[in-house]
## 1
Amino acid sequence: MENNDKPIFGRKTFFLNPPLNIENFIMDSLKSDEYEVYSIPDYSIAKPLLGMYPDSILFVYIDDLLPLQTWVNFIKSFQKDEKVKNVRIGILSNKIKAEQKEKLNEELKLQAGIVSLDQKPQQLLKQINDTLDLNEAKGVRKVIRLDLKNCKDVNGYFAYSSLLHSFRLVDISSVGFAAVMPVNMAKFIKKDTRLENVSITMGRYSFVCTVKIYNLKIEGNVCTIVAIYDEKTSDMTKLKIHNFVFENLENRNKQLMDTLPRDNSDYSKYVEEDEKEKDELNDKDMQEIDSQVEIFNPENNK
């Protein structure tokens, strides 16, 4: 991908049906490194959700829940769906063999490749990291900013000339925030101004910091600032902000999934008429792989 095609805001990354080692270690590690990642528990919500983010990345864990051919049909269906055909898809598996990977890659046109889970955690993390970087997951921005337009429990204050001034945050990240305040405050706040003892409350989190005004813009009666935390901001403070950002992103994603319709397609019977004559995994390959795949059975969970 050419640099001028790099997405400004990056690409959201989703893990469909993730196993515990992905959800508990890989996803947490990716979030710590400022990748925007989410889990999707069920394939029936995947396409409705990804239709909202058509330039996103999706990793599908294919070793359980559905038979392999059904997963193959599900992934192939993206190519014919205008809403999700540009989603970059990869596969996660413990059981796909090397000679079978090439056939799957060729048939499914996997832009995010096939990731073997049968490797050490740090090797696995590196492979997924490299895949995300290749697909420009972070974009131009290197940190995740949380839009605060609809957050009522986020407030900012600072003291100046013996008075306490309040401002409203527009967004926040682990490196700084944007805020709006009355235009008269521009009399004593300029670009490169340092503000000390700035207090921010974010729901159950709060912190005090020193910031430098990176940019300032006046429109009508509103002054908008972009502030960067100074170098003395503690790691604990940055962690509080990071946790607040990702907790809110995850909650918003869950709320969105709850409102979307389900995809009730039967992918076990899915066949593309114009692809019937194309080479697919042969029966021997399919039987060999399916014999290793754990088919989901609700009775086992009782």
Note: Helices lie at 20-32, 43-50, 68-77, 98-108, 121-134, 235-259, 283-290.
## 2
Amino acid sequence: MTQEEWDKQCAAVKEQMAAHAYKFTTPISMSEDRVSAVAWASGSYLQNGDVTWLMTAEHTFGDLKEGQHVAHLPVRDDHFVEINQQALRAARPVDVAAVKVPAIPVDSTVDTVPMGLVAERFSAVQSELLFWIGYPGFNLIRHDPIVPERVKATLFGELRVPAVPMLSQELQFEELDHAWFDPLKHVAVHYPAMAKKVAGGPDVDMPSPKGISGSLLWNTRYLETTQGGGTWTPELAQVCGVIWFALDKPDVVFATRIEAARQGIPEVFA
């Protein structure tokens, strides 16, 4: 297979995964006055029986100061809804959290991930295509220093935070020495400074990862399926982790393995 052919396959997988996974996601906003707000984190909805959970990173709640409130967006292009319930939280090194929210309105285009699509453990084959879709919260690129004035904020009464899909692979054949990284609990996934948006196109700047914490990491199972002679569809993908940290050297994000998330907040998966 040529590089051009591989690039086209990857572009097709990313496009199909984005169409599949976007409906499960929500931006998470933060407000101090319940009038204006800023982009804060990313989250996704999970369904377990009659209970709807909003899953994100633990520091989505842990970084809040007194008087700050977070909200989610269960209906596209509507108002953010404040989160009032107490979240179940597992702090770093697990760094995952989930909170009960009301059922998604029946007329919403937003949906919930069924538990059948949540893997028991991270089991991606070597070089597998991994995917996430999150909500970068700053008008900055990958290695820009965080400047508070560049945060995405309410404008004319609305907070718009576009979703950004990413297809990547696990860091391999390179030792990762970082105090926060535990290979038994985490996986490191490439998040470069520049990447192609479309097959055959130029490399473009990737957005700052600030704000994508809480995004679900999906094992697309593309290589697993096609190398086994099967026909791949995005419905075969499984949730395999939760993103919570970005590192610059090397250019990766850390995701908590789904088995560690299950152990950290077992009530969500019971």
Note: The chain has a mean pLDDT of 96.
